[in-house]
Design a protein that fits this description.
heterotrimer, A alpha/beta (about 220), B alpha/beta (about 140), C alpha/beta (about 300), A: about 220 residues, alpha/beta, Rossmann fold, 2 domains, four-stranded parallel beta sheet, three-stranded antiparallel beta sheet, 8 helices, 9 strands, about 30% helix, about 20% strand, B: about 140 residues, 4 strands, about 40% helix, about 15% strand
């Protein structure tokens, strides 16, 4: 899923306090799973905003709603639309995608992000989420034993490890596993060490975000 | 939370776990130990049931201070509920601080069922702390 | 000439010259003067440990003019494939022949930790790209290196090196990586400084089984230190370096730490000279260039140096 973390409170308050009636809009998918912008987080933030407004003597009317997700038009239902238009601004607790999509759906609405979107990751254990993919557009997991060096090597090496790998940890952070150690171990264990010795050519970065914002079109499904 | 203030004192909500803290409070009563009446006790099966939004709700509704009282370490009837509560109280204090509310207005206590005196003493100490904060902050009126 | 000396089978000694932080040409000339005549060639580091210094190529040009043969260093951290190819052509045009291809220490170690690390390529791909430019006369994209359709192809005749860390993990993978660099076209390899001889010997054994010393000239790294604190610092902070406790103890007990540091360095050099497959030594006297002459003298291997 996409993961995010709530922005510093002061930053959110600065946005919210420009207005008197706001809607805190949560997301029931990724942001719920990573506990950054689901129903509970919407409530917690609203409670904090209420307390803060009281402290500072600001007038702030807060409405709350959480929809399934903010990256598909269908979920911006009539009730949501009504709340959006009755508010002066929306504090969206969706990822960066949802924040933008919400504004696109409700043209003219002011939508602020409450979160800093981070990475595509998995729940390693309750309360811990780790990055696994960077959406490079050209998956090489087949040849690296299912472990991604583009996402998990600090230097995105395709022919690793670098000389800084020590005791299975990355030179950048000794809590971080060296991706190439993991790949080596996995390939060795499954007797695919030949994959390790292979020299991989330079990556085509134009297929990753580096080439500009990407679009996928399924002609067989589009309506026009 | 009722609007009328029977006494002019601070309003404290205390989430007390049934097995330890609530029983301790009861014991204090039986022993006729005095502690101020500003304490509104909310009995929960375990402090592990208390989540952050419940604590913040109390403040939003006008509480001047909140206590979460549970079992001593290792004695929780539900094994680790009190430990989870500790972690949440820690986070809630941070959230309160961000929102401009003094985090000292929230406290976690660990008491055993028989420790009536400890419960009473803790209550008194906490209420005094909140009263002092009221004075310092010019008695933030809960409108 | 580094290439020629190695081809002739000489035991080669190279050293390092760190460019200054400020554009101070006299500082470069002073360092070059300390090394001239002592060693075959001198590595010019490239924003080492991600700290910004005068560029390797510009510094190398000054070193060359001072009568010393440079080896420029190129990292993958700061430049993409366009900039690197451009730099290689520029360096070659300026009379620079030797290029050491490195991944580069992560930017978080240096003075600009917020910078974006480029890492368009890794060091193996960099070596492959450089050797393709030299051997096939074409760019990474496949185009020939020539000015116009009918102009001649001008391939940069560069001598290509790679780095290796016998003390990195996983042990076997690091050795395989050297083999990859050899297969990609590297002519020589310089290793991280040897403090743990026993581990180094094990590593060389693996390399021999992979047939690597026949394909590339391996120069073992050594580093003289001034104090036990320097060793402790490196052990903790410099990626890829680990120091045996015994060595730190020895330095601690030394009556004259600097002399002890030099002695340890020379001892190591003599031991390395005996190792089959080692074709030379690379002395990394970081910010202590003036000790190189002393080391070379003690080592007693009159190594010629002037640029041909």
């Amino acid at each position: 899923m996409i993961t995010a973390q709530r922005k510093p409170f002061d930053e959110i308050y600065r946005s919210a306090s420009r207005h008197r009636k706001i809607l805190v809009l949560g997301c029931g998918s990724c942001m719920t799973v990573c506990m950054a912008g689901g129903e509970t987080e919407v409530l917690t933030l609203s409670q904090q905003l209420e307390l803060a407004a009281r402290e500072r003597g600001d007038q702030l009317q807060i409405r709350m709603r959480t929809i399934t997700r903010q990256c598909d038009r269908e979920f911006f239902d009539d009730e949501t639309a009504r709340l959006v238009f009755e508010s002066e601004a929306v504090i969206s607790m969706a990822c960066g995608v949802g924040v933008q999509f919400c504004a696109e759906r409700f043209l003219g609405a002011t939508v602020y992000p409450a979160l800093n979107t981070q990475f595509y990751g998995a729940t390693v254990q309750p309360g811990v989420w780790a990055e696994r993919c960077v959406g490079c557009g050209e998956c090489i997991l087949e040849s690296t034993g299912g472990i991604c060096p583009v996402a998990r090597c600090a230097k995105t090496l395709l022919n690793g490890p670098c000389g800084g790998s020590q005791d299975g940890k990355c030179e950048v952070n000794d809590q971080q596993d060296c991706a190439w150690q993991l790949i080596f171990d996995r390939l060795k264990a499954s007797e695919r060490i030949a994959f390790f010795a292979k020299i991989r050519a330079p990556k085509d970065w134009s297929r990753s975000g580096n080439g500009g914002p990407r679009t996928i079109v399924r002609e067989d499904v589009t309506l026009q | 939370m009722d609007d009328s203030r029977a006494d002019d004192g601070v309003r404290i909500v205390a989430f007390c776990c049934h097995f330890c803290a609530f029983t301790a409070a009861d014991t204090a009563g039986t022993m006729r130990l005095q502690y101020p009446t500003n304490l509104r006790i909310v009995r929960v099966p375990c402090t592990g049931r208390v989540d952050i939004t419940m604590i913040l709700h109390a403040f939003c509704e006008g509480a001047d201070g909140v206590i979460v009282a549970g079992c001593e370490e290792g004695s929780c009837h539900f094994t680790r509920g009190n430990l989870r509560a500790s972690k949440r109280v820690k986070r809630a204090r941070e959230l309160l601080r961000e929102a401009g509310v003094d985090p000292q207005r929230l406290e976690m206590y660990h008491v055993a069922a028989a420790q009536g005196p400890l419960f009473a003493a803790s209550a008194r100490e906490f209420i005094k702390r909140v009263e002092d904060l009221q004075l310092v902050e010019g008695g933030k009126a809960q409108t | 000439m580094l290439e020629r000396s190695l081809a002739e089978g000489a035991f080669v000694v190279t050293a390092e010259l760190g460019p200054p932080k400020a554009p101070d040409i006299e500082a470069i000339r002073r360092k070059a003067a300390l090394l001239k005549g002592q060693v075959t060639a001198v590595n010019i580091t490239d924003n080492q440990t991600a700290v910004v210094r005068v560029s390797s190529i510009a510094t190398a040009a000054v070193v060359l003019a001072s009568g010393l043969e440079p080896v420029i260093q190129v990292t993958c951290r700061d430049r993409n494939r366009l900039a690197i190819q451009s730099d290689l052509l520029g360096a070659f045009l300026s009379g620079i022949r030797n290029v050491l291809c490195l991944t580069g220490d992560h930017q978080k170690f240096g003075n600009h930790p917020q910078a974006r690390g480029v890492f368009d390529l890794d060091s193996v791909q960099l070596i492959a790209m450089a050797s393709r430019m030299r051997d096939e006369g074409c760019f990474e994209c496949g185009e020939e290196i020539k000015n116009s359709k009918n102009a001649p192809v001008l391939a940069p005749r560069i001598f290509i090196g790679g780095a290796a860390n016998p003390f990195g993990d996983p042990f076997e993978a690091q050795a395989m990586r050297v083999a990859a660099k050899a297969a990609a076209g590297a002519d020589f390899i310089q290793t991280q400084p040897v403090f743990d001889l026993e581990r180094f010997l094990r590593w060389m054994e693996v390399l021999r089984t992979l047939g690597v010393p026949e394909k590339v000239a391996i120069l073992a790294g050594v580093m003289p230190v001034k104090s036990y604190k320097a060793l402790e610092y490196m052990d903790r902070n410099v990626p890829g370096i680990r120091i045996p406790g015994l060595l730190i103890e020895r330095m601690k007990k030394a009556a004259s730490p600097k002399e002890e540091g030099v002695a340890i360095c020379v001892e190591t050099m003599r031991a390395l000279q005996q190792v089959p497959g080692i074709r030379g030594i690379h002395i990394m006297a970081v910010e202590w260039e003036d000790v190189v002459a002393e080391i070379v003298h003690q080592f007693g291997n009159g190594v010629g140096s002037a640029v041909a």
